[in-house]
Amino acid sequence: MRLAVLAVLSLGSAIASAEPCRQAEVADPSPGRSDALLPAEARIARDLSLSNNTLVWSSGESLWRLRLDGKVCAERIAGRPADAASAVDALRVAVAGDSVVALTRTALMPLAPTVAAAGTPVEQLPETPQTFVLADGALYTSVWRGDAIYRVDLATGTVVELAQLPKGSGRFGFLLAVHADTLYASSWGQRALFAIPFATGIPKTIARGLAAGPTALAIDDANAYLYLESGPKFPGSVVSIELAKPSAKPRTLATGIANSDSLLRDGDWLYLRSDTRAKKGAIDLVRVPLGGGAIERVAADLPSPARPIGADAEAIYLDGGSRIVRLQKP
Q1: 141, containing H or E segment
Q2: Quick check: 276 and 300 in contact, CB under 8 A?
Q3: In the list 188, 228, 250, 276, which could disulfide-bond 172, CB 3.0-4.6 Å?
Q4: The pLDDT of residue 251 is above 80
Q5: Looking at residues 185-191, what average pLDDT do you find?
Q6: Per-residue pLDDT for 14 more than 50?
Q7: How much of the chain exceeds pLDDT 70, in percent?
Q8: Dmax of the chain from CA atoms?
């Protein structure tokens, strides 16, 4: 499968002349919570990210933003008109610093006429790109059912294999995270965590034999934090792994968190979504101290999927599909 192009945009300048915004309806369901109800055409498909006081996400074949400036309006900043005939795959988006990288599986996403940006042809990848992160002018990606991690140079489109992980590591996909000069990859299939220095591309096993498959990952200077899936035999737990002592047993920080697929580290806390049995389809936002301790419920009765995706000094932001949820920090 060929990943044909990447489109690189700058949040600071290249999208300054985006299309007129669609005003989002604002609701305040409870104290400390505000919901921006998005227009139907701007519903979040995936990849909602927070960067430089701006939320960016993909919806079908379009890229959208909502600036946190009090206006609460959604702006379509790239993509085909909604009524245009198209065989282009759904748009994906990755954010780092003030840059947005938009990509599709097979073709360049034409940008809105008012947006000045160009695509860069990308050399062939063996399969469909799955998870990806940005760092130092490159996009790092895994591909469907593959055990390799690839580096795509954003300036030239050159693709190289950064690392090859043990057989079967990518069968059910990787989670990727960057910290300093190292790429981290957690494997659901192998129940393992690997560290891959950018300089060498030689993987180092940080942890193996985890109690369950990891579905969320975050990294800081000292530790890796993983959410291990919940199920009939697994309690749904958050663990920390000391990076300086890769042979040490993972430390369990909390258990009993159900069906989480996102993990946001902010300050001294880890924020996660958790399904609640009290009301079918309802979601809680919970937080766990970095050092371990009692789980705190931050908010209840949130809309599915309610994934925590970013934080600023005052609030936590969540992907609610048809809405963006802002929760005042406790």
Answers
A1: strand 138-143
A2: yes
A3: 188
A4: yes
A5: 94
A6: no
A7: 82
A8: 56
Domain ranges in the chain? 210-330
Eight-class DSSP state of 106: S
SS3 state of residue 302: strand
Q: Residue 80 belongs to what H/E stretch?
A: none
Handedness of CA 292, 297, 302, 304 (dihedral sign): positive
Q: Which residues pair with 315 in a beta bridge?
A: 328
Picking from 171, 150, 167, 149, the residue whose alpha carbon sits closest to that of residue 159 is 150
Q: Say if CB 298 and CB 330 are below 8 A apart.
A: yes
| 264 φ/ψ angles, rounded to the nearest 5 degrees | -110, 120
The pLDDT of residue 121: 62
β-pair partners for 15: none
Q: What's the CA gap between 213 and 186, in Å, rounded?
A: 9
For Cα atoms 213, 218, 224, give the angle at the middle one, nearest 5 degrees: 80
Instruction: Give CA–CA dist 308/73, Å, rounded.
Output: 20
pLDDT at 63 over 80: yes
Average pLDDT (153-182) is 91
pLDDT of residue 150: 93
**What pLDDT shows up at residue 110?**
40
Hey, which of 158-162, 246-250, 294-298 has the most confident mean pLDDT? 294-298
First and final C-alpha spacing in the chain: 46
Q: Report d(CA 100, CA 70) in Å as an integer.
A: 22
Count of CA atoms in the C-beta half-sphere (13 A) of 50: 18
pTM of structure: 0.88
Position 70: which residue type?
Answer: G
Backbone angles phi, psi at 8, to 5 degrees: -110, 125
For the domain covering 210-330, report its CATH number.
Answer: 2.120.10.30
Q: How far apart are the C-alpha atoms of 320 and 162, rounded to whole Å?
A: 34
Backbone φ, ψ for residue 41 (5° rounding): -75, -10
3-class state of residue 42 by DSSP: helix
